[in-house]
Design brief:
two-stranded antiparallel ribbon, alpha+beta, 5 strands, single chain
Length: about 110
Amino acid sequence: MASNPRELFQKFPVEPHHEVKETYADFLGLTSFDGSSLRIELLVARMEDPKPPAQPTGQRHIVARLVLSPACAIDLINQMNQIAAQLAQVGLIKMEQGQAKPQQKPN
């Protein structure tokens, strides 16, 4: 038996559920870790019709909330670090002091 439960679970087959809807998000909202779960809010910006001469207005709406176990949060962090490394490798972002920054491309 695997010493790490994650190793055991990763051997389980993934059963696709096509009825699960996708959620699009523009922003991350409140994120918090309470010691037993990581909570993440996903937000989307919804604009209102502009009424000249006023600037366009809108609001950010919560469209989904994720609650992850500590093991899942660690898996998410590791996978996002791999994606960040790939994006940096192709020049889309650069890493500065552990933070991803958009790469400035000359026009």
